[in-house]
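Retro notes
What went well: the complex prediction finally ran end to end.
Inputs used:
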Amino acid sequence: MFFFTIRRIIASVLVLLVSSFLVFALCAASFDPLAKYYTQNPRPPESFFNNLREQLGLNDNFFVRYWNWLSGALTGDFGETINGTPVADQLIGRIGVTGRMIIAAVVIAVVLAIIVGVVGAVRQYKASDYALTFFVYILIALPTFWFAALLKEFVAGGINDMLGSQVLYTIGEETPGLGLYASGWELWSDRLGHLILPTISLAMLSFAAWSRFQRAAMLDVMGSDYMRLARAKGLTYRRTVVRHGLRNALIPLTTVVALGIGTLFGGAIITETVFVWHGMGEYLINNGIHQNDINVVLGWLLVSAVFVVVFNLIADILYAVLDPRIRLA
Amino acid sequence: MATTQATTDTAGGVLPATPGAPQSGGEVEREFTVKARSQRQQIIRRFFRNKVGMTGLVMFVVLLVFGFIGPLVDGKTYDAQNSSAQSVPPGTAGYLLGSDAIGRDLLAGLMQGVQRSLFIVLLFVVIAFPLGLLVGALAGYFGKWVDSLLMRFVDLILTVPLLVVLIVVASNFPSSRTPLGVGIILGLFGWLDLARIVRSQFLSLREKEYVEAAHAMGASNARIIFKHLIPNTLGSLIVWTTLAAATAITLEAALTYLGFGVNGANQTSLGRLVSDGVQAASTRPWLFYYPGIALLLIVLAINLIGDGIRDAFDPSNRRVRA
């Protein structure tokens, strides 16, 4: 298992290298950081552009630029944005913001997916199964931003009215400026109030698809011989389902969730936009793509790709933990 | 159950055969009076008996009628702006579902939106399906370096969330802000998971005896791939197509909401209607609800059909026997 992990990490680093090169090529070919000055009126003199090009290193050879970026990234320096702030500093804070949302959402979603999936499988073709299936299908079909807007409109409004004070916030990750002076309980309770709605929105939409996987896996397992054996040798139904069935049925879910965390980074872009969170997604869209800033886009992609690769690795290791028949070699 | 009864009936009802006299019809000699069905007939039959799948199909047909025949019956166009009927609520004369801020009829907009979204899906499938099938088939059938090359390429693109790839690509082509452009971009990047599915199926199918037999008889690689292997992956292909179609609609809506999808002047799609409506959620709720519900229904319908087809193709399906 140790060597497996080492080998996988080396392979992943190679994948990351090549993918960063591809993304760099794509961005370098299409983004022009000077685009916003071209349309300025009056148009700046040509020497201004030349200076800026020299300053941003745009005159260098493509491979030299990639090497400059790469050697910087390896030492933790992701370069500067067009406006001159270091990307690395921004990224760390923003990972924290997005991470708060994603971690809470994933935990809730996994628990819900397991419960709903198992209940659906155990009570297959009964009323409760049909009701859950219907509910889940609706959730799968909901567009993220529409659902989030519904939450903002009704849940937030309703609960705040009921409690008579602003408990749930619909905008931002914390009350602006609060981080400057408040600390401890005051700050974290405020953040919690901001966290609830985005988390619900993200968790509900991801758990829906996952619960279908869990249900299918559970149905497969329930029909297998060792489950019948477990029943035949006298175990209680509950014990066979929870101890023998669930453990094996968790394997497909691990894959889906591990892959899904990477996708959640993408999905979080929409949630962040709706709830105006200043997280990774907002950084990518507003500071990266809208500003034609290569360093920001590359920094974002590298961080999200590392997450994808790491969680894939975790999934592979978890297989072996969940199912001893699988040997990693 | 029905078969046993039928057999006893025939057996009991038949007169003892007189030697030399030909028996009337062939049925009597049959042990079971079950009609023989080919596998394809069984699958179709299972699908039509599946309530979930049929619900989806009916919903989908209704939406098709709504999108393509509706405008003919309704007779209005979404482009027509009426300055005297701006933001009228639903039910106002001539505006069944109300109108938006510049006096366009929401009902006509929805019809056109459904139409355009289905067009996007069609385009997406037409582009992504052959690409994914080809890449997956080549990788799975030939294995070795072809497999490594193609699959590493797929892996590379998949390290980045699909939505982000689409955003980066779409931001480079500002002229692609039409249903046509969005459909093409979705298609060009939507085949990656299909390639993986096809490859994994091919890996196991190419070891089967019938492939060996075809080789022994001198069949070409192309013939084996197209005549023997692809028909055997048909189930997964159809299921992928339906589920990916639903994803394409959602992705289009997301792209449009973030400002990288359909947003040219006079261009519309369901995603655009929904994202425009989100801004008006509290002031003009009809602009928020109806497009959202339409999008919900269309994705739901396609997903239900996909589920029904998957059940129909699954031979271990315990519920629906046909």
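What we learned: Chain A has 13 helices and no strands.
What to try next: split runs per interface for comparison.
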